[in-house]
Every structure is written in C-alpha cells, then in structure tokens.
Amino acid sequence: MAATNGSIFAAMLEEFDVAARILNLEPGIWQILTHPKRQIIVSCPVQMDNGEIEVFTGYRVQYNITLGPAKGGIRYHPGVTLDEVTALAAWMTWKCAVAHIPFGGGKGGIVCDPTKMSQRELEALTRRYVAEIVDAIGPEKDVPAPDVNTNEQIMAWIMDTYSMHVGHTTTSVVTGKPVELGGSLGRREATGRGVMIAAREAAKHFGIALKDTRIAVQGFGNVGGVSAHLLAQQGARIVAVTDWKGGVYNEKGFDVPALMEYTRQHKTVAGFAGGQPLPAGDFWGLEVDVLIPAALENQITIENAPAIKARIVIEGANGPTTPEANDQLHNRGIFVVPDILANSSGVTTSYFEWVQDRYGYFWTEQEVNQRLEAKMCEAFDAVLKTSLKYKVDMRTAAYIVAISRVATVTRMRGMYA
Ligand code: NAD
Fold first, then answer.
1. d(C-alpha 200, C-alpha 236), whole Å
2. Based on the domain organization, do 88 and 197 belong to the same domain?
3. pTM of this prediction?
4. What is the per-residue pLDDT across 144-194, written as a single tens digit (0 to 9) for each?
5. What is the CATH number of the domain that holds 271?
6. Is 294's C-beta closer than 6 angstroms to any atom of ligand 1?
C-alpha cells in the first residue's frame, strides 16, 4: 500500500474517506472508526546467546473491537513501526467485517531481525513479549496469528506462555497453530483457496468459465502456489508464474503439481523445464484473462498498469496495487478484486480455528472447505452487489460493506460514558 507523507496509516485513511463519504457517515462514527482503540508499546529485555541483554520494542494495536475480539497477526521485522502496525490493524478491522466474521481488527509487531537470532533467542523474545501484553490478549479479547517472519512454532510458544499465565491450556488465544495443538485442517491452503473462489466468481460475473481462462500468477509461495494449483484443478490454464528469482511461461498451461515439486526442490520456479523463461519485464503485459499478484505490496504501479491486458485482477497479496494504478485499472474497466476481500479466507479459517478450539470439537478438512466456500461466496456477493448499487469499483465497495457493518453495530451498542 502506498504511503501518504510516509504514513501507511494516512494511506489507509484515504481509502476509508472515499467510502465514508459515499456512505454519508455521520461525523461521530467517522471519528470513532478513524482512531485506534488501543495501542500498546512494550520493552522486551532478552538475554542473548552471547550473554548480553538486548531490549526489543514490541507493539500490539487493537484498532476496533466493536464486532468481537481483535484479530490479526504479529510480525517480526527490523522495519516495524507503530504507524505500520496501526494501519495493518485497521485493515484487519475492515477485512474481518467484509468476511462477515465476529472479530475486530488487531496487529502486532516486534522490531527485530529474526534472521540474525537463534531459536532460543526467538523463543525468549516471544515469551517475554506475550508476558508483557498478557492482560490485553485472550480468546475473548485479542487473538493473534502469524504474519511476516512468524510461524506455527511461534504461535505454539504464544499459546504456551499465555496458558502458563492463566493456569490452564487455552488453545483459542492464538490461531495458525500446528494441527496437533488445536490448529485447523485446511488453514494452510485457505488463503489460496479463497483466491481461487474469488477468481471463479469474478470470471462468472463476466460470463466466463474458469476452464476458458488463461491466468498469470506473481509469487509462487503459500498464496500463489495454492491458488494456481486449485485453479488448474478447475480447468484454468496457468500460463505464467514468477517469483523472487525469475519467471516461466507455458502457452498451453503448466503441469502445476510438477511445478510445485520443482519449486520445493529448487526454491524457485526459474529454470523449470515444463516452460520457457519469462523475462521479468514481460509479465504484466501478458495476454491473459486473470492476473493474480500474490507476492508483495506495491507491485502494480502507474508504470506497469497501462500494460495490463487482463480483464480481472485478484489481489492475493496485501496491498499489491498502488492507489494511482488502481484508478488507472478502474478507468480502463479492469475488474480488481481487492485484498480485503480476495485474501480474506485466511482470516476466515483462523475464525474457524478459534471456533473449533472453543468448541473442543474439530471438523474434517472437507467441512472446513465447505464452510469456507460458503463464507467466501457470501462476501464476494455482498461486495459485488454494493459495487453495482453505488457504481463504484470493488475496492470502494468492500470498504462500504465493511464500514457500514462496523458503523451499524457501533450505533446499536451506543455510547458508554
Ligand atoms: P510466501 O513467502 O509463501 O510467498 C511469497 C512468494 O512471492 C514467493 O514465491 C516469493 O519468491 C515471491 N516473491 C518475492 N519477491 C518477489 C518479487 N519481487 N517478484 C515476484 N515474486 C516475488 O508468502 P505468502 O504467504 O504466499 O504471502 C504472499 C502475500 O499474500 C503477502 O502479501 C501476504 O501478506 C499475503 N497474504 C498471505 C496470507 C496467508 O495466509 N499466507 C493471508 C493474507 C494475505
């Protein structure tokens, strides 16, 4: 997402304002929804392997908890700032509202470089961070999850530390856990599955069957790889894939399982024999029906957007399109399914994990996928109807859906003073 005067939060507010104006949102609710409810800053001292003590700064922001407990990941990165964490917590608020799940939005982060830390140091840092915020989190307060540089193991440490503090095992304090520890089947594939559903529904809107589509995917990790695999299973032709090291092209469509196996072995799609090399500059202008950016933020820019020939863009990644590029695509009639809708299946399945943990009864993978299909179709349908009703693009429509849901409940709950 592009920053405004360097502030990611200001960029979020710009998107918010467009939808809030269309909704004619009253000033009081506008004020509430543009302020974070709670921002926590903690100092986490850790004894490093060399015996020295280092103090790490950690954040947890609960942006809005009107619809339910705060929900959102924790990232470990040297560039983490309070501004960034607050913006991400706000986006989680809108994403959960679009997905129509009973969660508010939260996010956390620790300023650290996990690539330079041992497992023991990472565990010590994680446990100290949880101890510092332990009163603020909990199954009914705030439920963290993985994000950049955090994983199942770190979620297991969070769950264990919280459980030690409250005196009993509490799996539902965090999602994205190992399946053996209360994680949900289907969580790992959930975001890619939702991207596949979004692509299928968008194609349907244009009267195109998936088997007649040619698709290009940027990024072949969790989101890009799984969505390419599932789309190919539905008969779509995945003709181009790129990752950090290079790209490949196959006019007839890849054998995606073979490409996945190659990537597992070589850590890149580059050099895959089942296609020809694709120069990085050729990717955006390919003759395809659907483009799926599933790598990083700010990939579709005002420089490459005019080259795009696809009719449909599905934002698997968070913030892959700059605001200027978004306007450019919209003005050319290109249908962009925004991140807060397209990749919302990740958090929807986190919600399923939380439900199963609280229930103490676990669903089969098939049950998880069926429920996910229903939630994703419901969300897509609500945003599409809103876009047609207000004659706005899908991004603005997603904000309208999210803001009206949070605003309605805010009005119903009234003001506690
Ligand atoms: P990942 O690390 O598994 O995969 C990222 C992929 O992008 C890799 O294939 C990598 O090689 C590729 N990549 C990196 N730099 C690139 C570049 N310059 N050009 C082309 N490809 C490049 O990550 P992921 O979990 O698949 O996440 C991808 C995006 O989706 C991120 O924006 C993430 O925030 C978002 N997202 C992920 C989930 C989830 O459940 N995993 C949920 C919601 C949103």
1. 10
2. no
3. 0.96
4. 999 999 999 999 999 999 999 999 999 999 999 999 999 999 999 999 999
5. 3.40.50.720
6. yes
